[in-house]
Design brief:
Residues 14-73 form the Tim10-like domain. This protein has one domain (17-82): Orthogonal Bundle (Helix Hairpins). With 94 residues, the chain is mainly alpha-helical. The chain has helices spanning 7-36, 47-88. Helix content is 77%, strand content 0%.
């Protein structure tokens, strides 16, 4: 029998996920804008500003992906170590 997740909980989780996404997006936008946009005298985005913003975004996303990857690796090692400690203490059959 499947466990049902309360609708309120699902809505809160989705809202939190969306909120986290927006915070990350806003941080990325602000950081790249500050670093790349230098000329406010024209309406058009200069090609060097556009190139800079695209590079900035790509680097940020790659960095974010790498940090997430390393965090997952760390979590796996931590879980394996915790399981080994439990097995060593005799609380779980090995």
């Amino acid at each position: 029998m499947a466990t049902q997740v309360p609708l309120d909980s699902l809505d809160k989780d989705q809202l939190k996920t969306f909120s986290d996404f927006l915070m990350s997006y806003n941080k990325l936008s602000e950081m790249c804008f500050i670093d790349c946009v230098t000329d406010f005298t024209a309406r058009e985005v200069k090609s060097n500003e556009e190139r800079c913003a695209l590079n900035c975004m790509e680097k940020y996303l790659k960095m974010n992906q790498r940090v997430s990857q390393r965090f997952q690796e760390y979590q796996m090692i931590a879980n394996e170590n915790a399981l080994a400690m439990v097995q060593k203490s005799g609380q779980l059959p090995g």
